[in-house]
Amino acid sequence: MRIDIITIFPEYFGVLDVSLMGKARQSGLIDVGVHDLREFTTDRHRTVDDTPYGGGAGMVMKAEPWALALDSIVRADGTSTVVFPTPSGTVFTQRSARELSEHTHLVFACGRYEGIDARVPEYAASIASVRELSLGDYVLNGGEVASMAMIEAVARLIPGMVGNPDSLAEESHEGGLLEYPNFTKPALWRDREVPEVLLSGNHARISGWRRDQQIARTAAVRPDLLATEAEDAPEPPKADR
Ligand code: 6GU
User: Fold this and answer.
1) For residues 83 and 106, is the Cβ–Cβ distance under 8 A?
2) What domains lie within the chain, and their CATH numbers?
3) Ligand 1: distance of its center to the CA of 143 in Å?
4) Which residue from 86, 100, 114 has its CB within 8 A of the most atoms of ligand 1, so it is best to mutate?
5) 112 Cα: distance to centroid of ligand 1 (angstroms)
6) What percent of the chain has pLDDT over 90?
7) Would you say 157 and 101 are in contact if contact means Cβ atoms under 8 Å apart?
8) What backbone phi and psi angles, to 5 degrees, belong to 173?
9) What is the mean pLDDT of residues 2-11?
10) Fewer Cβ atoms within 10 A, N terminus or C terminus of the chain?
11) What is the ipTM for the molecules in this complex?
12) Residue ranges of the tRNA methyltransferase TRMD/TRM10-type domain (predicted)?
């Protein structure tokens, strides 16, 4: 997978050189390019923003530098997907991450200030597939941190990225439930015991206990996910109804 990032803060993305992402880049699973939006300006001051039509607080990012950047980065064969991280987008979920991980070329367009001229995503949609995605109901200063979160969520789903593929399937959200609690040695630590069932060696009991823990945890902290899971679950066999 190729990932291109367009930003006025290219230095933010230095962390992509470390940890799992660094390894993925070294192994050639992921190829990342970071582009300074100011390189696509044509004026002496390298201006990327201007005052909003209709008035209001803050500045809006100008359309033309974005168009020049997209024209140079988006593939002509229509295989690119441009992601605009924005608190006004649809919510980015594990399902979105899974879907994006199946693409061959992602372009993250990181807006700052009060956003980008609204004609830019429209223009992008004329040359690529477009997703306007939000991390959730809170406001960040720009798309950089949001892009980083989405890139990490997507990259770890690419086959070959995680040592043990089972560790992906068991995680929170993949099955619509939060993860069960984990423990490691020692079995007794500061007066706290590891649940006996985990020491039993009875794998059927352990699976049942873990499933119960997942359901209890999800009901307690994310009841909205249980409603979603019921909707997504396959229809029960007719005999059960
Ligand atoms: Cl994707 N961008 C910004 N600026 N703020 C956010 C967000 C994205 N998601 C949640 N808050």
Assistant:
1) yes
2) 2-156 (3.40.1280.10), 165-232 (1.10.1270.20)
3) 6
4) 86
5) 10
6) 79
7) yes
8) 85, -30
9) 97
10) C
11) 0.95
12) 1-226
